[in-house]
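Put briefly, the fold is written as integer tokens. The lines below illustrate.
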Amino acid sequence: MGLFGRFFAWIKQRGQQPVAKSDGGSADPAATVEVVDEFGRRLEVPRAEWRENILLPNLKQHWNDPDELAGLIASACNDGFRADVIKASEHLCKIDPNHSRGANVWAMVLAQEGRLGEGCKVLQRKRRDHGDDVQTIVNLGRLRLQQGKVEDAETLFQQAVQLDPNHTDAILCRVARTKDPEAYKAGLRRITELPGSWKAFLWLAEQLLQEREVDEALQCYREMLERAPDHLPGDVLTKMGGDLGNVGCLIESIQFVAPYFKPEIHGVQVGNNLIKSYFDLGRLDEAKAVLEQLYASTPVALRNILKYWEDEISKQEAEIQESPDPEMLKVGQRLIPGPIWFPNHHDLEEAFEVEALEEISVAFVGSSYEGEDLERVGFQRSDGAGRFTRALPLFLSQEVYYRHHVDTFTFIPWLEAPQSAYAISRVQADFEAVAGMARHEAVQADYVVYTHLKLDTETRWSVELSLIRTIDARCLDSFVQQIETERMDEGLLAIRNRLQKSLVEHAELSAQPVSPPYELPPPEAWSYYLLRLEQLLTLKIASAEREPAGIYGERDIVDGLLDQCLDQPQNPHIRLMLAQGIKALQRFKPAIVLEFKDQVEKLQQRYPLDGEVGQAVAAYLDDILSDTVETEDFGINEASQ
């Protein structure tokens, strides 16, 4: 860690600061700064653009606001823009009522500019005019050390630790130059003997753990906890739990940290260690309990690590789940009429509904793929191929509905026993079976479109699409279309266009112009769009279950639906997908809806939908957030099989 690696740790941070992705001070024009926008999205901004449009205007705007200015200077120095804040740092030193902060920031910038002597004078002047504080003494000692004045530095570090024996920088600087382990431990023990001292036990225990003196280390923690305040700081819990976990003392890590952990105070930093300990011990329910506590108190921009753990826990649960007895399996069908996002709500039905021009209906069936060496019967997490086999029929169903003005239905195989889950077939279905499904009394479709997926390679799939007449199960047309998994738009466009042609030629359907409010995203976003269709399906099926099980990643789904709205801010049906997802989630995870309420309200305010239909959709979403929408049928029906 460099000279000022810890220098800004004590500066009061003002919100989420941008973090440079490139090395500090990089002149590379392609380098970027990562920023977090008001919706919690991480965005890459070119360094030059960030400097001109964000840093410099903000410095000017907050020139006489010490709190904001200090945060901007810290961020700029960390991101390699130190040259732009030299004058601001000097100005801060003059106006900051927090004399320690102002002096230390200015001294830090001077030192990084190689002006060590001037930095020392700034800190000495602060001590003379405004008295001593630990951070100023420590940083003056650091500068003296850089000047080669070791004895002066050691004296200053000793003064600092006597002034506050629990100041992290003071403790570490006091013992940092000690190379011999025994002398290092002796130095820490001397600090623990100072009046009011307790924090030095952390590093003493760490050294003992590295020497495998576990019992002695645990005794250090016990003594520290006896002396420490009731509400332990997050950095203490993080270090204690992390050090114990690093040497495999997982149970002890939980025993010493969990009783003091308060998610709303200690946040992800401490919670992450707890989750890992529970996870590594196989105590998944306790790991999930901590995860839920953190989700309720963690800003959206900091949730990446939580999503990681949610995914890891789900994987582990799937791995330890026993394969079902084939005799116990009960598979049914979930039937979705029209588009999955179609609003069964009186104020919106007329806006999105098209009048069927012909008394013909088309059903869609998928949910089958082959090409991987997997068990024939067993549970597994949803993967990309499985999601695609459900999303493609949903996508084609809505396209045919709006482009041919006929009724459409999508069948989704659903495992009803021994537990609820999507069902996937590992073999291609028989056309007679598919036609029989489409002849179901609730549908009585005239035609059925069956899509079967083959995984040719990791990056290339083949979709075999068959148009079947239900009355005699005759295949009227069939074709195979390859899809590149990294970019699906060309393959999806080809499938959509070929199906349209097939329906016109073999089912004698007429092509109709598509008019708003139905508008697809641009083709390059279709793979992303299909994922959101499948995720919306998951939420709506879960909401229809009395006790939904096996659902995970609900927050990630809402994040995706929200991102899609931000990418397509004037698309009514995209906004309606978000509304339908939130409404579904409200039925079985209302606490998660509350977590996103501010973001969705901000979306509504920042990007109001235009037109009569847009305003109706926006009003519908507002009513959902205020929980005034009457319970509605989501159109997920059971079709026995």
